[in-house]
Amino acid sequence: MDAVDIYLNITSPDMSLTGMMVSRVSLPGICGSFTVLPGHAPMISALTEGDIEYVAGGEISSTHIKSGFVEISDNRVSVCAEI
Question: Could you tell me the domains of the chain?
Fold first, then answer.
């Protein structure tokens, strides 16, 4: 059986990363950073300035944001952020 991945979508007025499958994603929440793994409970959170770090194909990448929010549901992480 294949490992379950997370569909990560980051959008902003300046750029869009869509259709990216990742194994985990860490986000800069306003109450502290948190990591999303497959099967994470649904939630919505505001984001503060920091790095969104994600692992795709075994490689760690990151995108710096100024602020935003995230919705997590059904192995989908949708971020709307100011880059």
Answer: 6-82 (2.60.15.10)
